[in-house]
Amino acid sequence: MKLIGAILIILATTWVGFEGAKRLSDRPKQLRQLKVAIQSLEAEIMYGLTPLAEASEHIAKQMPKPISNFFEQFAYRLLNKQETAFEAWEESLKETWGQTSMLESEREVMMQFGATLGQHDREQQQKQIKLTLSHLEREEQEAKDRQHRYERMIKSLGFLSGLLIVILML
Amino acid sequence: MYDVNTIFQIAGIGIVVAMIHTVLKQMGKEDWAHWVTLIGFVVVLYMVATIVDDLFQKIKGVFLFQG
After folding, report:
1. Among its keywords, does the record have Iron (chain B) (predicted)?
2. Which of B4, B5, B17, B20 is the best mutation test for A, with the most CBs of A within 10 A?
């Protein structure tokens, strides 16, 4: 009986550790996907001359899960609600940000990008996209750095803290 | 009442705390590492103090014929 409890505690804390490590390793991955998404948005605007709603629908189809939700939401809001591009962008950011592993700083970058959306002509828009991409690039570097530093630590810390609790209660 | 298990328990706490200390220190969180060590030390000290208190009560009971 005691043994089962001990194993359960260790499993639970180890799982918490792995979950934390997964969030840490998801962040650079999702940042990269976001970069790809914005690049294809640039391509759609510059070369395809596609309207924003249609372009983000295309992107939503191409991207994997948490990122695609955002663009889907954005396209839906643009098409079905009477909102400006910035409002739609802001609202869909608010709604879908919780599903991603990204942090407040990326959210700020995306908000700033949303504020410029649909305000300028194509050249200006492209400059804004470039600016956002370089911001995201920097965030991705930082996220990778953090992942390298903390991923192993969080995993082993989860297991070790479980072991400590078990020994304390023995 | 107390058998050899308590000694092993304290040894286990020592080993695990030392490992946590090493991991945290390796990742550059030295302040956390020191806190973990300090808390582990306090816990072990509390356990030892309880046991020594028990010992003193027993000695008192043997030599002074009290409860």
Report:
1. no
2. B20
Q: Which residue of B has its CA nearest to A157?
A: B20
Mean pLDDT, residues A88-97: 82
pLDDT digits (tens, 9 = 90+) for A57-85: 888 888 888 788 888 888 888 888 777 77
3-state secondary structure chain A: CHHHHHHHHHHHHHHHHHHHHHHHHHHHHHHHHHHHHHHHHHHHHHHHCCCHHHHHHHHHHHCCHHHHHHHHHHHHHHHHCCCCHHHHHHHHHHHHHHHCCCCHHHHHHHHHHHHHCCCCCHHHHHHHHHHHHHHHHHHHHHHHHHHHHHHHHHHHHHHHHHHHHHHHHC
* Interval A124-150 mean pLDDT: 87
Is there a contact between B20 and A164 if contact means CB atoms under 8 Å apart? yes
Q: How many domains are there within chain B? A: 1
CA distance A167 to chain B (A): 6
Question: What is residue B17's predicted lDDT score, i.e. its pLDDT?
Answer: 92
Average pLDDT, chain A: 85
Range of the domain at B23: 1-66
